[in-house]
Amino acid sequence: MNKNLPIKHLSARVPWHDNKWNGKTCCSVLDNSFCRILPRVDATKNPDIEPSDTTITEDNFPPCISEKGTFLSPYSYTRELSHAWTTINPMFKDFKPGIYYHKPFSFNAVPFLWMMKNKGSDDNPHYSEKANVFELDYDANLEQQVDIKLGFAGNIWVQHPANQKILLDAFFGCLKKQESLVFFYCKDTPFSNPNERIIVGVAKVKNEPGSILEYNFDRNYQGHKSHPWDRCVEHTLTTNNPDGFLLPYHEILDYTKQKSTEIELKEYAAFAPDYKQFSFASELVEHDTAIDALLNIAESLKKSEVLLEKSFRKELDWIDAEISAIWNMRGAFPGMGPVLSALNVEDGNTIAWEIEKHIIQKDGNLLQTNPWTIFEESIAEPEKYIKTRGAKLFNATAQRIWKGKPGKKKEFYKQLSRCQLNNDQANFILTKHAELVGSIQEIIENLYLLYEKTRFEGYGISFRQIDKALLPPEKIQLAFPLTKESALKDRLDERRVRAFTIFILEEAAAEGHSLLPFDEVLERMKAKAMDEPFPIDEDILTTQSEEDFFVEEVTSILPSKTNPTLFLKLQRIAELKDIIRQRLNIGQVLTKPYNIEKDWLKLINSHKKFPALDTHSPDYIDEITARNEKAEALNVLTNYRFSVLIGPAGSGKTSLLEIFEKQDEIVRGGVLKLAPTGKARVKLGHDAKTIAQFLYPDRYNPMTGTYFINEEAGKYSSAKNIIIDEASMLTEEQLAALFDALGPVDRIILVGDYRQLPPIGTGRPFVDIVNEIKPKVFVKENIFSGAAYAELRKIRRQSNTGDFRWDVVLSRCFSDEPTKEDLEAFHAIASGSIKSDHIRLAKWYESKDFRELFEQIIAEELPLDKNDIIKSFNRKIGAKDFGDYQYFNYDYAEKEIEKWQVISPVNGYGYGVKEVNKFFQTTYRKPFINLALNIQPENSNYFQKRKVAKPKGNDNIVYGDKVINLRNTRWENWQKIKPSEKKTEALNYIANGEIGIITGEFRGKDNDRKGEPNVEISFSTQPSYSYVFWPDQFGEEGKYSLELAYAITVHKSQGSGFEKVFFIMPSKGALLSRELLYTALTRQEKKIIILHQGDFKDFLRLASTDASSTARRFTDLFHLPQVKQLKQKWYDARYVNISERGEPMLSKNEVIIANCLNKYKRQITYAYEDKLKLDISTRIIKPDFTIDNLSTGKRFYWEHLGMMTKTNYREKWLKKLESYLKDGFVLHTEAKEGDEKILIITEENPNGGINSHDIDLTVRRYILET
C-alpha cells in the first residue's frame, strides 16, 4: 500500500559548472576540476579531449550528464540507463538499458540514502532506516531472498522491485508541484572547501515527478528484476518567467578577475543549513531547513549587493514570499511526530501526519485547529477523527503513556513540538534535558536554553530552531499563542538577545576569534538574515550586556586607557583562558627554574644521531652552531616547569627530545607524549597519544569533535613530564582541556613552529604564549634561547653538501622576523642570480601551459625513464617488477611514497590538487585503472575473475595509488592486519593525514576466493604491514574516507616532511597568506621545486605582516587585541607592521620612525626603502627612509640598525657604512651647512626597542632644524 507522506522540499546535488549549467560544456573544462568531487564525473572526465563551451547534444554527452550537470539546459535529451551490475554479476547480465528522457529545465533525482539498507543490527541486515522512520510497508524478507541469490555478502542496496517501488514512491510523493522547493547545491566550488555544501540555486518543483522507470528485458525473461532509481523532476528556473534564481557566484568570480582583486569568496557563499538533508545526491528537506536555507541565501545576496553594486531586490522579495508559503505548510507544531515517538508512542510520526492530513481536509490549512487538541480528543475517543485507523494508532498503550504524564510535562512536550525536530533530537532532549539543560520549568521559561546548553551535543538544538518556535509569523502567533511563561515580551527580549549573541560569538570562535569587538558583534547581528526582524542597536545591546542574566553567558571587557575598544567574550572561552594562564603561571615559571647543571653539549655530542665532528666538512661551523643551540635548548627544557621548543622542520627537535627523555630526572618522572593530530602522534612514537585519545571520554566528545573542561573528572598523575608536539595546531579548547586534565607535573613542553598556519578553531595559543615569553634580547650570540624559551634555527636535514641552504633563507622571508638580507636573497633567487641545488623555480601562466610544464618537470626531477615512462613512474611510488608485471607490496612500497610530494594551496582549477592527482592517475596509472575496471570480453558468458578491487571513493582510487586518510580511525580487534601476526604490534590506529599506498588485495590465478577483493593499505608512518578494508567500506558518504595523494593541500602537509617537494604557487584562485607560504616552503628535506604563476618576485607581497592570517585573529590570552582596519580587513595591530600611511614595513621600530615622520607631513616627505645607486661602488642599496625637507630642499637618508648584537649583522653594516662614507655621505651628527648627502643612523637598544621621544627629537633637530 502506498503511503502519502506530508509535503517536503528537495535538495539536488549538482556538479559545479563554470557555464551556469546552461546546456553547454564548461567554459574551461581543465580549470573546472571542482566537479571531480563526484566519482562518476571523475571516472570519465578528460580535459584533454572534451571541448569547452560547446552545446551539449546526444553525440557529445559530458561526464556530468548523469549528475544533473544540465539542469538549466533548454534542450531535451534521451540517454540509456544501464544497471551498474550488468557486467559484474550473472544475476543482472540480462538487464537491458532503460531509457531516461531528460526534459528541458529538469534533472534526474536519485535518492541514494533511501535505497540503502544494512543500517540495523547484525541480526537484521536488511533493515531500512527510512522505512522505519516513515513507517512504510517495506518487507525485509524480500531483500533476504534476493541477497541469497546474489552470490556474495555485504550488499547494502535495496534490490527487490516491490521494496524499491515503495521507497521511491514515498520519496517522490512528498514533492508537490508549485509548492515544494528545490535547492541545488554543490559539494565543491571556488567558494568552498571540498565536501562543504554550497547552495547555488533555488526553484520550485514544476510538475509532479515522473513515474517509476523500468529496465528492458527479452520477452520471455523470467529472472530477477529491479527498477532504475532516477526520476525526472522539472523545475521552474526556466529561461522565460523563471520562478527561482541562481546565486551570483559566477558574477563574483568575473568581478575578481576584472578587478584583479582577492576577496574571501567564502563570505559570499550560501551554506546548506543541514548536512544530512543535503547529502546522498537527492534528499528530502524539512520546512524549517528550507526556511534556514532561504535565509542563508538572502544573507549571501545582501553581501553580494555591496560587492557587485547591484540590487537583488527581486530575489529577496521572492525569498520573503516563499518563506511565508512554507510557514503555511509547516504549521505551528512540526515536531509533534518526533516528540510522540520519543515518548514511545507507537507510530508517533504517522499519528502526527494523519492529524495534519485530517486538519487540511477539514480546514484547508493548518492555521485554525490545534493538532494537540485532535490528539488529546483522539486519546479519549480513538475513532473520532481518524476513523478506522484511529483505533490502531491511539491504542491502549498510547493512551496510558499520554494520560500518565503530568500537566507540566505535557505543556513542555507541546512547546517542544513547536520546533522542527528529528527523532534523534526529540529523544535526546526528553532523556537528557534534566542533566544538560535544566528542569522542565526552567526550559519552559526560557526555551533558548535548549540551544545554549546543547550547542556542543551531537543532537543539540540550533538557535534558529528555537527562534522559529518562539517567533513564528503573526498568523501563527495569533492562531496558537504561546503560554505567558514561554512567550517573548518582544523581538529584543533579553532571552533572545543573549542566545543570539552566543550564536554570533560561537560563529566567530569557529573562525578563530576568542572575543570580538562590540561593534563587530553588532554588525554581524545586523547582517544576519532572520525569520523575524532583530532591530538591535548599540544602546540596547550595551544595556543588556550589563545585566546579570547576560553576563551568565557573555562577559564584557570594558575599554581602558591603554585599549579604547569594548569587547564581548563567551564566558566559556573566558574560563579556558583562566585555566591556561593558571597552569602556565609564567611569572613564577620564569623566576623559579630547577637550576640543574650538566655538560649539555656533551649530552648532545654523545647522541647516536650526531657523529664525531669533521673539521674538514664544509658544514663544520654550521654543525657546531647547531649543536650549541641544541645544548642550550636542552638546558632550558630540563630546567623549567613550562617551556616552548620552537624550530622549523629539519631543525632537530625530534632528536633533541630523544636526548631529553633519556635523562635520569626525566626517566624517573616518566614522559607523556601528545599531539593534536593523529599523524603527529604517530611521529612521536608507539607510546604517544592524540590529545583526543588522552582526553576521551571526560573532556572530549568524538561525536561532535569538541574539547571541554570538566572540573568533576579525574586528573592525570602518572607521567610528570608532558611533551605536546605540533603545538601550533592547538586551539584554546584543546589546550585548556588538556591543562584541566593534568594533575601535578614537573614539566610541560610545547613543541612546534608558531610561524606555520594557525589552528582550525578558536585562538592561536601557541603564538600568544611564544610572544609572551620570548626574550627581548638573546644573551649568547647565535643562540636563541632564554628563560622557558628554546629555539632551533639551524636546519640540518641534509649535511656535507657544501651547498648553502638558500631554501631555508627563502622560507624566512615569510616568517615573523625576516631581515633585509633575507629579502635581498629573495630578489636574488627570483632573478636567478642565486643558484642552488635546493631550489628550482619554474614559471607558468595558465592551466594549459602549467600542465605541459609540470609533466616535463616531473619527468626531470623524479626522474623518469622516457623509454618506459609508466613503469618508471610506478617504481617511484614503490612498485616492484616481476617479469612483465608490477606489484605493490607492504614493507616496501610504503617506504618509498614520501620521498617526493606535490603540494598546492587549492583543490580546484587545473593546477589544484584534484586535477593534478587525476593527471598522475590517468597519465601513469592507466594499466592499473583497467585492472580495477575488470572489463569483460564482449559476447562472453564467462565472467573474468576480478584481481583487484573496483575503483573506490570520490577519486576512483585503485590498486597501487598513493592515498591520504581523512579521518581518525581506531582499528578494532575484529578488523584485520596483514600479515596477521603483526596485529598485536601494529598501531591499530589510522590518523587523519597519514599517507599510504594501496598494496592489495591482488588475487592471482590460483586464488579461488569469491566476491570483490579487499582493499589493503600500507602507511608510510606504519611500515611493514597493511590495514585490510572490506570493499564496500568506501562509499561516497561512508565511514572511511581516502583521497589520492600524489598532490595534497598545503594545510594537509603541515607536520610532514618529504625529501623533494613540488610546490604549485598560483597567483589567483587561492587566498594566500604569509603562514601558508612559510608552511609550504619548509616541507622539503633536500629540494623544493616551485612552480609559480607569473613572476616569482610578485609573491614577495606576502612577506608583509598584513598578509598574515594569524594577525587577523582576535585573542586575549595575555593582552587585548589592538583593533586596526587595513584595506577593509580587521587586524590585531600587535601582529602587523603598517605605518599610518598604510605601508607594510619590516619591523615595528620602522613603523615608529615612519609615523614620526608622517607627523610632520606638511614640512617633510619620505619614501620607504627607495632604491639608491652609490656613485663610487655603483652598488644599489635601499636606505630605510629617504626624506626631503620641503622648505630647505635638503635630502636625508635614514638607516635604522636593528640587530647590532649579531656579529654578522654588524660586519655587513660596517661594510655598508664604508660604502656610504666613500660616496661622500656625512653622518647627521657631523653635518655642516651645505652638505647634501646626510646619513641619519639610529640603533635599537639591547632589548630590541627604541625611544619614540628620541626619534621625534632627531627629526626636529636634524631634519626640521628646529
Automatic annotation (TrEMBL):
- Superkingdom of source: Bacteria
Q: How far does the signal peptide extend, from start to end residue?
A: none
Keywords from the named record: ATP-binding, Nucleotide-binding
InterPro entries listed in its UniProt record = Coronavir_polyprotein_1ab, P-loop_NTPase, UvrD-like_helicase_C
What are the UvrD-like helicase C-terminal domain coordinates in residue numbering?
A: 1044-1090
An example of a GO molecular function for this protein is: DNA helicase activity
Q: What is this protein called?
A: UvrD-like helicase C-terminal domain-containing protein
Q: Which organism is it from?
A: Chitinophaga silvatica
Lineage at the top is: Bacteria, Pseudomonadati, Bacteroidota, Chitinophagia, Chitinophagales
